[in-house]
Structures are given as structure tokens and as C-alpha cells.
Amino acid sequence: MNLSLSHTTKVVRGEITLPSSKSISNRALIIKALSGLPFEIENLSTANDTQILQQLLADKNRTTFDVGHAGTAMRFLTAYLAIQQGEFILTGSERMQQRPIRILVDSLRTIGADITYLKNEGFPPLKIIGKTLSGGEITIDGSISSQYISALMMIAPYIKNGLKINFEGQVASKPYLDMTAEMMKSPTLTLPEGEGIFSHLGGDKRGGFVVEPDWSAASYWYSMVALAKDAEITLLGLKKKSLQGDSVVAEIFEKFGVKTDFIENGIRLTKSSDFGLRTSDFQLNFTNCPDLAQTVAVTSAALNVPSKLTGLSTLRIKETDRIAALQIELTRLGFNVEVDGDDLIVNRHSGKSQQLNHWSSISVHTYDDHRMAMAFAPLSLLSPITIENPDVVVKSYPNFWKDLKNVGFEMK
Fold first, then answer.
1. 333 and 379 Cβ atoms separated by less than 8 Å
2. Tens digits of residue pLDDT in 103-138
3. How far apart are CA 367 and CA 319, in angstroms?
4. Which residues contact 181 (CB under 8 A, 6 or more apart)?
5. pTM
6. Residue 163, number of CB atoms within 10 A of its CB
7. Domain 2-19+213-411 has CATH 1.10.8.60
8. What distance in Å separates the CA atoms of residue 358 and residue 353, rounded to the nearest whole number?
């Protein structure tokens, strides 16, 4: 199934209720399951990933856990099941069975976990014989995935002798570790500034959780405001003080001419005449906010802003190789995009008309990746565009197309 997307007036105005944060929701579910406490989780995400994790955790007699495409669930459940009494199979979709898990498995084995690969070494599916772990000290490459480290952090209070993690290299996506630490609310937990040590001994303490709206989802609305002829969008519930590192999107898109005003019930986005990148290049390291990279890359190309996006190494092991996918799809649309190692370079193009003339005959491949679909959708404010497999957005933002329709986008 394909979705043809366009907008007649190019003027976008409306009030949007964003989905709840998937990152916060998934952590809250694991923390609650580990604690055994009946605290409340308010405003839990309706994203497919979160719903899958919730369903898997709800069945106390389950021995086979199939996460489908849910990467966070795979990482978190690997650690979670390692300390549950019993024998379990943890598996996922074909793509999930191509996404590496070795670093997390090796770390868990170091502290006593019994985990076996059922097919290919280093990849799911896994056979896990859960038991009490001895704990101790491990060393992990912090640059690969913050989800590995968050998974270890959340089980740390339930390990016999506590846990000490030594990090090699720069810690990627550190705001996600800060999120995990804040949600665990432990006075004995410490985090490194860059390279360093995470330690945890003793119990963790918390009450309930109220899940924030998702700043990652907000990024697509920032892109729409940047590309629209005129725009005023209110995103309900977002606050300046947030657990989410992706709240930096407000600062990033200020450079693309999007003004953010924090109001009583959320934020208001408007177009600004101060577009600071009209005559200069844009460069940003996405180590701490990798989920924003696709949105920024597409916006840069559409606005003809030469850009260099770095800190993208973790994008190679997401739902797809997002670096390669961005280059392929932007190039197919006529933009000049290069890849240098793990860096994405968007070059200035000669003019809009050449690109737009090609779009009517090209459909954007989404690679079973929700963020590819949503990052490319704002281009329809420049010219009609076709998105393949639009239902993939259910992974994180089930009402995305409905929300676009409510602000004037036309779909068929």
C-alpha cells in the first residue's frame, strides 16, 4: 500500500496531541515489572512497540517472547529475563534477527547470565535461563547503544553484589541514560559525564510515572513548520523541563526559521523571518539525539542548506541502516547527498524545480522504519509525494496521518 500526500495551501495551522514518549513508557514498564510494586503509569504510549512490551510482561506464565520489530523491547527483555527464574525464548522479526545483541549478552554473561544464541552467533533469537546473578564489574563499549546500558542499569538493583560498568569510548545517547537514572530515582546511582563508570548498589525507590508527550514525534512538526509557506502549530503537553534529550529539537530548528514559544498548555511553533542558515552551512553531532537525524537531513535538503551530520554510527543498527536509507531516498528525489564513513553530507543543489519535477513518479521507500515515513512526509508541502508502507508509523506515532489530515494535508 502507498499513500499519496499533498497540501494545497502550504499553510499549516492546528493543535496537535502528540503520542506519549515511547522511551519513557518502555522504561516505566520494565521498572514496574522488576519492582513488583502496583504503582500507576499514566499516559502510557499507545505506540506498537510499547503495546507489545506491555502485553509480553502481562503474561506471567509466558516462556516465549516475540518482540516483532520492537528493538527497545528486545534489549530490555534480554536483561530482564536474565534475572527471572525460568527458561525463556526471546525472538523477533526477520529484521530483528539481523540486529546485533552480542555486546549486551557478553556483559550479562560476565555477571553470571546463562544466554545461548539459537541461530546466528551475536544475534537473536536467544535462549535465556534466568537466575540470580552474582553481579560485579563489567566493561562495555558505550558508543554502540544506550539501550544496552539502560537495560543493565534497570536490573542493577536486583543483582546480588551490585553492578559496576566501566565505559570504553564516548557514551552514545547519554540523555537516554540520564532518563533511566532519573526514573530509577536511586541515591546510590551515579553516571559518567562522558567516559567513566556507572555504579549501583542497594535498592531503587520510586512512586508512579506520568509519561510526557514525545519530543521525537514533535520533530516532524518542526520540519513541517520549516517547509510550510506559513504555519502556527500548538503541540500540547510539551514542557521546557523534560527527561527527553530530543527536546533539543527546539534549539536545532531555530536555525531553520522555526520559533518555539512555551505556553501554558504546551508549545507554539511559528515560522520566523530569521532563517539563519540561508547563507551558511549547518553541522551538528547527533550522538545525543540520533532519532532527530532523519528529520534534520530531509529538512536540510529541502531548504537547500549544505549540512554535515555526524555522530550517526548507531543509525546503522536501527530498524534499517538509516544512513544508507537516507542517502538512497534523498538521491532518488534528486538531492545531492553523500556518505563519508558514518557521516551524512547534504550538498547544495542547483534549484528546487529539478527535484520537484521527479517526485510525481517516485515513491519513498520506508524500509519498515517509522522514522523514514515521518521524516519524508513534510516534503509534501513542497510538492506531492508518495510514501510506501505508511502503516509503519504505528511503531511510535499511530495517529500521525490522522493528525496531518486534520491540518489540511490531502491523502489518497
1. yes
2. 999 999 999 999 999 999 999 999 999 999 988 889
3. 8
4. 153, 189, 191
5. 0.88
6. 24
7. no
8. 9
Q: For residue 252, what are the CA distances in angstroms to 6, 223, 248, 305? A: 26, 11, 6, 13
336-391-23 Cα angle (round to 5): 85
Contacts of 225 (CB under 8 A, 6+ apart): 12, 231, 233, 253, 258, 269, 270, 271
> Closest Cα to residue 221, out of 404, 398, 406?
404
Q: How far apart are the C-alpha atoms of 394 and 372, rounded to whole Å?
A: 13
* Partners of residue 235 on adjacent β-strands: 16, 267
Cα–chain center distance at 261? 24
Q: How long a stretch of residues is the chain?
A: 412
Residue among 78, 147, 149, 85 at smallest CA distance from 116: 78
Asked if residues 383 and 359 have their Cβ atoms less than 8 Å apart, the reply is yes
38-42 long-range contacts, CB within 8 A, separation 24+: 39/206, 39/207, 39/208, 39/209, 40/208, 40/209, 41/208, 41/209, 41/211, 42/208, 42/209, 42/210, 42/211
DSSP state letter for 20? B
DSSP string across 38-86: ---EET---SHHHHHHHHHHH-TT--EEE-TT-HHHHHHHHHHHHTSSE
**CA–CA separation, 400 and 118 (whole Å):** 37
- Measured CA to CA in angstroms, residue 128 lies from 120, 247, 265 at distances of 15, 36, 45
Instruction: Return the residue matching grid coordinates 514533535.
Output: 218
The CATH superfamily assigned to 22-210 is Enolpyruvate transferase domain (3.65.10.10)
pLDDT at 353 over 50: no
Domain ranges of the chain: 2-19+213-411, 22-210
Q: How far, in Å, CA of 362 to CA of 376, rounded?
A: 12
User: How far from the centroid of its chain's Cα atoms is residue 176's Cα?
Assistant: 10
pLDDT at 47 over 50: yes
Per-residue pLDDT reduced to its tens digit, 63-104: 999 999 999 999 999 999 999 999 999 999 998 999 999 999
| Catalytic center residues | 291
- Phi, psi of 141, rounded to the nearest 5 degrees: -75, 110
Same fold yes or no, 2-19+213-411 and 22-210: yes
| Cα dihedral 355, 2, 397, 34 sign | negative
DSSP E strand boundaries for 158-313: 163-168, 197-200, 209-210, 230-236, 258-263, 266-271, 282-285, 307-310
